[in-house]
Write a structure and sequence with these properties.
Elements (H helix, E strand, L loop, with lengths): L3 H14 L2 H11 E9 L2 E2 L7 H14 L4 E6 L2 E4 L6 H5 L13 E4 L1 E2 L4 E10 L9 E13 L10 E9 L2 H4 L8 H23 L1 H11 L7 H6 L4 E3 L5 E3 H8 L7
Parallel strand pairs: 1-9
Antiparallel strand pairs: 1-2, 3-7, 4-5, 6-7, 7-8, 8-9, 10-11
Helix pairs in contact: 1-2, 2-3
């Protein structure tokens, strides 16, 4: 690949919607010999010749579902908004100031420095042996790229060294959830778990108070430091970095001058 962002949608269609010989040719052309494949249900590891396993994974994928509807929603395309710069903006939930609207940047989640590509995909998976089985799922595929060995300096080319398919739990259970019973259970459990988070945060709110007023938001000071009144920088409520010695000079402890 000379332009990963532009070429990867076509490569994904070749891997998922073509005959086995085309799948193999695609993998041999675009994957390194020791490429790895990771999925919630299987993994190949990485060793010399491991891309042969990737070909078999894709073959089995097509055997189970000869007709796959798959679309690449985006190759990490998103709009980067300016972060809030003041406390008031943060409290109001402002992710972009009006003056920055015209300067919002379109970026791609292709990390050229780390050679990592993020691809958002949705597909409809059907198993031919199970009538009525239809699993519309969404995922994000993370592709780790490496420079091709024979790439020219003025025209770099890249190969896929690792593919990692990331699914939310409520998405990958659709593959084996006939009538969506398991999917519904997971969805309900996720809402119940959110309720437990709210309940726990309320019951243990004193812990949050200690973290906010004593320890510091990122725990720059350990419990020992708090007990002994020692050490460490931490960010106070007003965003000012202080330390134990500074606080003691002002009033005998952290924030002692207040």
């Amino acid at each position: 690949m000379e332009n990963p962002v532009a070429e990867i949608p076509h490569i994904i269609h070749l891997l998922t919607q073509t005959a086995p010989s085309t799948q193999r040719a695609t993998i041999e052309r675009y994957f390194t010999p020791d490429a790895s494949f990771t999925h919630p249900f299987c993994r190949t590891g990485s060793f010399n010749g491991s891309r042969w396993l990737i070909w078999n994974v894709y073959r089995w994928y097509k055997i189970l579902s000869p007709r796959i509807d798959i679309e690449v929603d985006s190759v990490g395309a998103y709009r980067l908004l300016a972060a809030p710069q003041t406390k008031a903006e943060a409290e109001e939930g402002c992710s972009q100031r009006p003056s920055d609207t015209a300067n919002a940047l379109s970026r791609t989640a292709y990390d050229a420095h780390a050679l990592r590509l993020y691809v958002s995909i949705h597909q409809v998976f059907r198993i031919w042996a199970i009538p009525g089985m239809r699993a519309p799922v969404r995922l994000v595929t993370v592709l780790q790229l490496v420079a091709a060995p024979k790439a020219r300096a003025h025209k770099p080319s890249f190969l896929i060294a690792a593919q990692n398919d990331l699914y939310q739990v409520n998405e990958f259970v659709k593959f084996f959830s006939l009538l969506r019973v398991v999917w519904l259970f997971v969805l309900v459990w996720q809402f119940v778990a959110t309720g437990f988070c709210v309940l726990g945060a309320g019951l243990l709110s004193p812990v949050s108070w200690v973290e906010e007023n004593v320890v510091g938001g990122n725990r720059q000071r350990g419990v020992r430091d708090v007990v002994l009144g020692e050490g460490g920088e931490w960010v106070g409520k007003e965003g000012r970095v202080t330390n134990g010695s500074e606080g003691e000079g002002e009033g005998g402890g952290v924030g002692g001058g207040e």
